[in-house]
Write a structure and sequence with these properties.
By secondary structure, the chain is mostly helical. Helix content is 66%, strand content 2%. It has helices spanning 2-5, 21-31, 44-63, 65-69, 78-103, 109-117, 134-155, 161-189, 193-212, 224-229, 237-255, 280-290, 294-307, 309-329; strands at residues 265-267, 272-274. The protein has a two-stranded antiparallel ribbon. It is globular and about 70 Å long. It starts with a helix and ends with a helix. Bound molecules: Phenylacetyl coenzyme A. The site of Phenylacetyl coenzyme A has 29 residues, from helix 3, helix 7 and helix 10.
Length: 330
């Protein structure tokens, strides 16, 4: 369904006068912060935008397991292994909440997965960067989950009920993820000179990719204007990026690490940190499929999907058998 919907041309934001009565009633609900629920009427583009964003978000959670999962067997202590295992498992759960929420819009999980595997749906750019060593795992928890939380706390107030409720649940788990990451990086930053060097290197490499997670500048964002009018997004890409920078700089200073960007400077007038731009050409390249790990990530997901077919078939056969036994007994 989504594949057909995205083919329909976007008509831009309609003024109140251009809206039909049904569209005006819908916009009034949004403006009054009344959640939209699955059985409510909604414009086709609202539905398609949500399926796109929630589907991409779900894919990000699932693909996001790969860079960290890669380190479960090599975690430095049993405690770190148990923490990482729990975190990676949580990410799978987040993917499931989000696929289920997207299903309430009439799209199946199988279809979303198919579109991902065919390269027709995206997932977060950040997961196309490698995790080279243990410091990267700390930095992923600290910076990547940290950035994800900034975005997801705002999304708790999104206008679509099932998405908003999924976000509330996910945010509770994400804050454990960020804390465990910061704790891991703290141990390295306060550890031996070699460990501190690794922490610095991880920060330097992951800083700009983490900044890219918020998407292009508002002026270059395709969907922001309409998504904000519909309160699918409640804060803009640039607002969220600034919030992330402001909360993370004092954390870097506490660790005693060098700032990863020479342009970072407190701006008294704005009451915010100034900072430099990520390389947007690199961002575009990564989301077009040409990042350092895109090919590996997609092939790992396709393999997992294919290898799991017998499990899905078995579960379906069992569910069908149970359902027909129930019908026979009635
Ligand atoms: N990566 O018009 P906009 C996590 C695309 S969860 C890839 O501004 P929008 C947890 C965008 O899709 C991380 N593509 O788009 C975890 C659009 O292309 P399209 C995921 C990106 O949707 C931690 C085009 O660029 N979080 O990390 C990216 O209004 C650790 C134009 O952009 C979410 O998905 C990007 N970074 O705003 C898991 C949160 N940015 O679709 C495991 C929900 C933009 O037209 C381990 N999503 N694009 O072909 C959102 O809030 C929004 O979708 C944005 C983008 C803010 C990401």
């Amino acid at each position: 369904m989504y594949a057909q919907m995205i083919k329909t041309a976007r008509s831009g934001i309609k003024s109140r006068e251009e809206m039909s009565e049904q569209e005006r009633a819908f916009q009034d609900k949004i403006d009054n912060d009344i959640k939209i629920e699955p059985r409510d009427w909604m414009p086709d583009d609202y539905r398609a935008t949500l399926i796109r964003q929630m589907g991409q978000h779900a894919h990000s959670e699932v693909v996001g397991q790969l860079p960290e999962g890669n380190w479960i067997t090599r975690a430095p202590t049993l405690e770190r292994k148990a923490i990482l295992l729990a975190k990676v498992q949580d990410e799978a759960g987040h993917g499931l909440y989000l696929y289920s929420s997207a299903e309430t819009l009439g799209e199946t999980r199988d279809e979303l997965v198919r579109l991902l595997h065919e390269g027709r749906m995206k997932y977060s750019s950040i997961f196309n960067y490698p995790t080279l060593n243990w410091a990267d795992i700390g930095a992923v928890g600290w910076l990547v989950d940290g950035a994800a939380i900034v975005n997801q706390v705002a999304l708790q107030r999104t206008s679509y009920g099932p998405y908003s409720r999924a976000m509330i649940r996910i945010c509770k788990e994400e804050s454990f993820h960020a804390r465990q990451g910061y704790h891991a990086i703290m141990q390295m930053a306060f550890g031996s000179p070699e460990q501190k060097k690794m922490a610095q290197d991880a920060l330097n490499r992951l800083w700009f990719p983490a900044m890219m997670m918020f998407g292009p500048h508002d002026s270059d964002s395709t969907h922001s204007e309409q998504s904000m009018a519909w309160k699918i997004k409640v804060k803009s890409n640039d607002e969220l990026r600034q919030q992330f920078v402001d909360q993370t700089i004092p954390q870097i200073e506490y660790l005693g690490l060098d700032l990863p960007d020479p342009a970072i400077k407190w701006n008294e007038e704005r009451g915010h940190y100034d900072f430099g731009d990520p390389d947007w050409d690199e961002f575009m390249d990564v989301i077009r499929g040409n990042g350092p790990c895109n090919v590996d990530r997609l092939s790992a997901r396709k393999k997992a999907w294919d290898d799991g077919e017998w499990v899905r078939d078995g579960l379906l056969a069992h569910a069908r058998k149970k359902a027909s036994a129930k019908v026979a007994a009635e």
